[in-house]
Amino acid sequence: MAITPAQLTFEADGTPCSALYGDVYHTRCGGPAQARHVFLAGNNLPQRWQDQKRFVIMETGFGLGLNFLATWTAWQDDPQRCQQLSFISVEKHPVSVEDLAKAHAAWPEFAHLAAQLRQHWPPLETGTHRLLLAEGRLILDLIFGDALESLPMLDAQVNAFYLDGFAPDKNPELWSVPFFQMLAKLAAPGATLATWSVAGEVRRGLSEAGFKLEKRPGFAGKRQMLVGVY
Ligand SMILES: C[S@@+](CC[C@H](N)C(=O)[O-])C[C@H]1O[C@@H](n2cnc3c(N)ncnc32)[C@H](O)[C@@H]1O
Fold first, then answer.
1. Could you tell me the CA-to-CA distances from 46 to 55, 74, 78, 194 in Å, in that order?
2. Domain-located, residue 2
3. pTM greater than 0.85
4. Which of 64, 166, 190, 214 could cysteine-pair with 23, CB 3.0–4.6 Å?
5. Furthest C-alpha separation in the chain
6. 93 in a domain, yes or no?
7. Is there an atom of ligand 1 within 6 Å of 11 CB?
8. Which of 23, 88, 91 to mutate to test the pocket of ligand 1 (most atoms within 8 A of CB)?
9. Domain residues for 13?
């Protein structure tokens, strides 16, 4: 499948937006803080990777790499970090390196790591691109292609899922029961998930796929978010 790159635009307040989906890449209330609240804390990270040999995170939708950069920072700053962190992320419409630079300019706290990510950024070609970072202790597998086509071919034991598609009404395939069942097949025992969406169809689909769910207080304007254990 040929890749159609993302079409990145910015709203008046600077929030990055996708012209293909008509949705924002992260909340208007602050991307880095949302990443830490929803995806890291929602999966009980950094605690769960501490003193482990290896820990595997899988994300649905790499986007601008915001969640990845927040995770890399937390891992790097943690003296008890796992020996190896594997971060697998699937992306149907990757962003050009020029657009990544525009988006990353909004997050000075990640400037140093974001520059490294852009240095390693692969060509926008279908398939898995493995980036070895932090002297090989951080492995980023960027899968460029449709998640529904790519995941069945993946061999992984995932400890934590970051569910971060666009809103379910704009991006329904990333919140569908068949997709959640693909995630369940990749779940290691005790795998957790976190997402900002508490939509009824998301909760029903995840439960059907075998995840036990719990609502927690959401970030900024959102009353609730969702976490789960497989
Ligand atoms: C909300 S954005 C992700 C933001 C990202 N996690 C970050 O930290 O910057 C959702 C992403 O899902 C991607 N996406 C949508 N449908 C997809 C599909 N079927 N397969 C893979 N990626 C998809 C979009 O292109 C977009 O980059």
1. 11, 7, 7, 14
2. no
3. yes
4. 166
5. 44
6. yes
7. no
8. 91
9. 8-229
Minimal-distance CA residue to ligand 1 atom 25:
93
Pick from 144, 164, 197 the residue to mutate for probing ligand 1's pocket: most ligand atoms within 8 Å of its CB. Answer: 164
206-to-103, 152, 180, 200, 210 alpha-carbon distances in Å: 31, 17, 6, 10, 6
Q: How many helices (H) and strands (E) does the chain have?
A: 7, 11
SS3 label, residue 122: coil
Token pair of 123 as six digits: 């060509």
The CATH number of the domain holding residue 186 is: 3.40.50.150
Structure token pair of residue 182? 């693909």
Query: SS3 of 204, please?
Result: helix
Type of residue at 103 = A
CA separation for the pair 229, 159 (Å, rounded)? 10
Mean pLDDT of all residues in 20-24: 96
**Each residue of 101-124: pLDDT tens digit?**
999 999 999 999 999 999 999 999
Q: Give domain status of residue 1, yes or no.
A: no
Could you tell me which of 38, 20, 64 has the C-alpha nearest to residue 197?
Answer: 38
The tally of domains found in the chain comes to: 1
**Contact (Cβ atoms closer than 8 angstroms) between residue 51 and residue 44:** no
Span 75-107, pLDDT tens digits: 999 999 999 999 999 999 999 999 999 999 999
When the pLDDT of each residue in the chain is averaged and rounded to a whole number, the result is 96
Asked if the structure places residue 198 within a domain, the reply is yes
